[in-house]
Amino acid sequence: MVTLRPGSQTLGTLLDELAAANPTAEAVVWRDHRIDYNTLRERSDEFARTLIALEVKHGDRIALLSDNRPEWLIAAFAIARVGGITAAISTFSTARELEWTLNHAGAKILITMSSVRGRSFLETICNLCPGISAAAPGTIRSEALPDLRTVIVIDGESHGPIINWNDATALGADVDHARLNRVQADITASNICYLLYTSGSTANPKGVLLTHGHVIANGFDIGARQHLCPEDRLWFAIPLFWSFGSANALPAIMTHGGCAVLQESFEADVALSLIERERCTVFYGMANMARAMHDHPEWSKHRLASLRTGLTIGPPEDVRFIMNDLGIEKLCNVYGSTETYGNAAVCDSDDLPELKLHSQGLPLPGMRIRAVDPITRAPLPDGRVGELAIAGYVTPGYFKAPNLTAASFDADGYFLSGDLGMIGTDGRLRYRGRLKEMIKTGGVNVAPLEVEEALLRHPAVKQAYVVGIPDPVKDEIVAAVVELDPDIAVDRTALSAHCRAELASYKVPVHISLRSANQLPRTATGKIHKPGLQTELMEEIRAAEM
Question: How far is it, in rounded angstroms, from Cα 35 to Cα 30?
Fold first, then answer.
């Protein structure tokens, strides 16, 4: 079935359009709750009127700190309706990170859970705002959080300026629909709807700004590559605060009229049950999530038999594992970032398997991608590896960071990704790793991805990650961390011999560390944390030399 592109240019009018077209279709499933498109629109309208009552103005940032649940979606659409900006905050945030993000965003309102996975966010706010219990709603004053005025708690009781979600919803009762319609009519496609924060592995996160029109357009095109339709049901365990969730999975499924099946946070046994029960057809996840389900004692391939397509990111072996071992043959390999609205290139679900294993597909309709010389920024011919530069649906810039914004675009307005890759003669993008991860050993550059792919070609290797380790003689040496299949006997010597047969001598890892999957350091969103891996390997090598 071919789904027509929505005519809407803002998230608020998109929800209106979807509710008018198919009001009783399921939009969201969460636990035992089933919300159709008309109900989602009504609840979004209701909360939008609350935001107007709380004097939210065009461009105000509203912080949203919650796991995957309907209130996240209701709030985000409501914020979009009144011209506010959803500042999505990671549920992995420490107290220091929460304070930093709220201040950086200048959040006027915080919508939060009391706690998530043992992190007591409400307690943190109370500690940062002494005397908060004596304040009235909308009157919080704190030196630590000078912009914050109101806190809405999704799962707690009202207390002073801390308002329970249901009580907050009642605040908008006196705001009529005509006023909301006037406010919504002033919002345009070029207005900002999201402020999304990158993971910030080595420094404070960057606040990436995204606009209404491009979220909708790019989301639809991502869904079109997967051939999504209203009957599709997307398994949604990736965090909504991550661009892979809010700027990719969410607009992809909703612009096609499908259903988002929410899982608060990933747990393998819950995922297996949820996908099986709800007959989910779309997989959005990383290889570590797929392996956790596959390795679970209650695993059975038939439990995921309903999954048809979806997206993932990773080397060929990870993509192959999800396609073959989980049975998702129509899985799409992708390339993109928060700055490119989730994806800039996506394979078609009907592409041949080899194309999906070894490329990230063609650029999406609104995207232009080229490889440029990392030094001169001159465009390179097809087939040459360089820094990937993207134009089209890209961020208008970083929040409160004009110098960083200026440095991130070339003279032609292309966003400089910091990624290595090439555009093949077939027009397809082929990713080759992060530019800053390039290893320089003995004066020669080594791409970690090339070494990782060589290691993954060994039948005993399940995962492989390669980093450069400082060395007084060679500048850096190549080091690898490998997870092995426990059923295949192999040692480091055999792995080195395999690499020597596959790679030039200077690319062969000098040090190989064998680890299990749970011994690999990861970011909050499940990606391998290479700076942490590098630090651990440096300590491991140093200890071996003593």
Answer: 9
